[in-house]
Amino acid sequence: MRLVKVGIASVNTTVGAFVRNTDRALVLAKRMSEDGVTVGVFQEQLLAGYPAEDMVQWQGFIDRQWPELERFARETAALSTVFVVGVGVALQGQRLNCAAVVAGGRVLGLVPKEKLPTYSVFYEARTFGRGQPGMKERYRGVPLGDYLFQFDFGLVAPEVCEDIWSADGPMRRRTYSGAELVVNISASPFRLGFVETRRELIATRAADHQCTIAYCNAVGSNDGLIFDGGGFLNQNGRHVMETPRFQEGFAAAVVDLDRTLRLRGEATTWRVDREAWLTTGGQGTAVLDCTDAVRTRRESLTYPVPAHRSFFLPTPDKRRPAREALCEDILDALSLGVGDYFEKTRAFKVLGIALSGGRDSLLTLLIAHRYAKRARPENPGSLIQAFYMPSRFSSDSTRDAAETIARELGVAFQVVSIDEAFERERDVAARMLGGVPVTPITEQNIQARLRAQRMWNWSNSCGGLFLQTGNMSEKSVGYTTIGGDLMGALAVISNLPKTVVMYLLDYLQEVTGYEGIRKVLAKPAGPELAHNQVGEEELMPFPILDACFYLFASEKLTPSEMLQALTPMFPEVEAARLGGYVDKFVRLFTQSIYKWVQSPLSLHVGNLDLDRERALQLPVVTGSEWMRET
Q1: 296 a known binding residue?
Q2: Annotated catalytic sites, by residue?
Q3: Is 33 marked as a binding-site residue?
Q4: Which PANTHER family does the entry mention (predicted)?
Q5: How confident is the model at residue 175 (pLDDT cuts 50, 70, 90)?
Q6: Alpha-carbon dihedral of residues 586, 587, 592, 596, nearest 10 degrees?
Q7: Which end of the chain is more exposed for a tag (fewer CB within 10 A), N or C?
């Protein structure tokens, strides 16, 4: 047996907070060593925080990381543990995103990331250069390039994030060169349902390349990106360990690297493929001998046996039901996003919400309160202030719902009417028009803008974080007001479709029993900016709207193709009406891009986000001729 204990850590970093990031990592590094960890793994860009985006173009931002890496090495010098940490370096005009191997008080080597993503929320090729197969350079006297690291327990292959996602990544040549333990350090943002994809991919890579994989992921939120942690340890395709998500810390497990070599010997296909690779001139990876850098202590490690003491029977199934898993993941992610933005900016003292008595502001309040329960468990409501700002169109039922949920959560609640201001602003607008009455839509917009203005005034005066409460469905078709409900400092649910908002509220009603949620759900969804206003009557049924959004914005279908897809999905809707919904959606969506590009910073929870900088990059000015049938 060749037993090795692998520790996988997730650190909640802040971009540019080099000293604080290193301090947090050192706490976990020392705890891992005390736990007998042989190899301690930290995330991508641990020292700088991720994503730093164009900040890496500042030479000082890059250079300042190295002293912290050396400090990390010095302060772990007495530990009999090998560490892999993420760091950025500048070499010959290029910025390189590297995995640094640290042991015995020294930085033993640097391995740069080879695959740079430029899809979804990523734009790394804009700032970073690529590592290359066979690369052999030196940075400050330290080997930098395509290297494996030989220790007294085995051969380690570090790699960075996207390298594992490519079928043509460096893992193939490195395992063919003898690597037994592949260490992938990542900063992979949370996306709905993506944890299953990660788990499957890591199992597939470990089986394909007949190796042990330690996958480490970042945790925490920076700007709108949320990182859920959740590292994995997998040996030759067999799941060994998964670390907790949405929390800083580490977990560790023991593997027998002799088992990895034995399974290679049994895997005929792997052996034949490796032989073919060698005979056709496959380029191997150089090995750095680091056996004298550190003497690991593995005498106390015991063979990994199942907790339920059976090698043949399945382990107890601890997975959550699908509905619970989906809802809790979204709520955990968004509350983490709110909390980290609130704390890391260090600009705010309290959270503020314009609570309308409707679904969107209710869910935003519940997410903020979820964070507050973690930050101030003794009195979470003290961290939040809610304002109900009625006009003549506001109903008694929405006021009652807003008051009820605020009372149940212990949140400060104020009623501040905008009716008098609404009349005044409407009259001023009419005078500016030369006495012509304002349009009904302008009357609605005046109300929304008054509420936003008052929230900003409150925010400016007390250091409040003004949370924007709009959802993605209504944002996508412009059912929102620039300068009004589109505004805020942080958009909490702006990447959640309306159907998901309602799904989450149904779930929260079941698990919490809050009367305030029940009262909100009892009334049809509508902005109450006019008499008897119902959102689905003014737009279309939300399930159809969300389906249109997905097919058009995600699947990139034309209107005729959308109708073909929707017809069997909604057989109860006559074809002409469904076609009208499709045409209306596409028209509203393309006309509303100018609106949502002005929206505040939003939290990302999926691949399909309305964010021009990170996800859906669309021109504001565009024609529609390309969508017409020829």
Answers
A1: no
A2: 44, 113, 161
A3: no
A4: GLUTAMINE-DEPENDENT NAD(+) SYNTHETASE (PTHR23090:SF9), NH 3 /GLUTAMINE-DEPENDENT NAD + SYNTHETASE (PTHR23090)
A5: very high
A6: 0
A7: C
